[in-house]
Amino acid sequence: MSNLNGSDSPKIHVETPPVAPSAPSEGHHAAASGGIGGILRRWKREDLIKRGSLGLRGIALLFCLISFIIMASNKHGDWREFDKYEEYRYLLAIAILSSLYTGAQAFRQIQELSTAKQLLQPRMAAMIDFFGDQIIAYLLISSASSAIPMTNRMREGADNIFTDSSAAAISMSIFAFLCLAVSALISGYKLSTQPYI
Amino acid sequence: MSNLNGSDSPKIHVETPPVAPSAPSEGHHAAASGGIGGILRRWKREDLIKRGSLGLRGIALLFCLISFIIMASNKHGDWREFDKYEEYRYLLAIAILSSLYTGAQAFRQIQELSTAKQLLQPRMAAMIDFFGDQIIAYLLISSASSAIPMTNRMREGADNIFTDSSAAAISMSIFAFLCLAVSALISGYKLSTQPYI
């Protein structure tokens, strides 16, 4: 995934495989005219990745927030209160945590896009992105799967506003998980293009 | 993470950041004598990564197998049979699946180490490694967390051989998850050092 388009001059030949040009068919003997196009393509791709990553985090934030709000307002008296079940408390806690995480990341990314100034060192930011996304994705899938069996069993008996809200909150957590799993892949790509690691 | 130690000659200067030498303090003006050392270091590191990845998969295979065996033999009559609960059936299914996956991967890696011949194209293998590890890790954490709440609740009432075996199988699945999560990170690194992506 590492690429420095058009940065290797035609004169040097190295034993180790050269860093990839964007199109495999070009080979690594990039002509001087292809060099500028390569750099432009690289910039365009990096911009696309930056925006895509921001978009995914934004969508994940939305899903987490919806999950959090639905679950937090899921109190309908008697046995139909979310805080009587540890699975739902866990789901709520993880929804809050991931809202905070994705919110903070999206805020940082928007600020970096608008002011073109890096808040963190790029390498540090890439590491935080990669590990953070993975950990939050693991937490989200874990909380969703812990809440699913009980909800299933409840819905076999009775289908009311409480079980429906729980199911909705779980679905939102799963959607947020999907967004963050893709975001973790993108962060892995960004980490791999960092120099000096 | 991309690195071609000592492969860039002192004469060329490029706008884009150069690929990383192993020690940041060296800068990218590697002396000719440092070039061979760099390549040797790179080989040593790649060998270490290959062995580390194989070791992690081996340990994960062990944990998955133990989890699978404990859960499959967890039948003690009456309500104490694992196949009466969907969570335990799910755990068993995922334990079998991940045993097969880690077993196949470890087999492939051992064969590649002993015959020094690649069964798959390196780029294809790196992609399969990366996505496979991530997906299996997500499945393992999902199955373990879905089985935990019910086991917890059962153990509040009665603590017998059935609940103890379930808890043991769950723990083994979680250990296997940890191994595969680290293995996914290593696969991400390997993917990032693939040329032509």
Automatic annotation (TrEMBL), chains A, B:
Source species, domain of life: Eukaryota
Protein name according to UniProt: CASP-like protein
Region (Disordered): 1-33
Membrane topology qualifier: Multi-pass membrane protein
Keyword presence, Transmembrane helix: yes
Entry keyword annotation includes Transmembrane helix: yes
Lineage: Eukaryota, Viridiplantae, Streptophyta, Embryophyta, Tracheophyta
Biased composition (Low complexity): 22-33
Quaternary data: Homodimer and heterodimers.
Keywords annotated in UniProt: Cell membrane, Membrane, Transmembrane, Transmembrane helix
Annotated PANTHER family: CASP-LIKE PROTEIN 4A4, CASP-LIKE PROTEIN 4B1
Occurrences of domain Casparian strip membrane protein (ranges): 49-179
GO cellular component: plasma membrane
Annotated transmembrane regions: 54-73, 88-107, 128-148, 168-189
Subcellular location: Cell membrane
Similarity comment: family membership: Belongs to the Casparian strip membrane proteins (CASP) family.
One Pfam family in the UniProt entry: CASP_dom
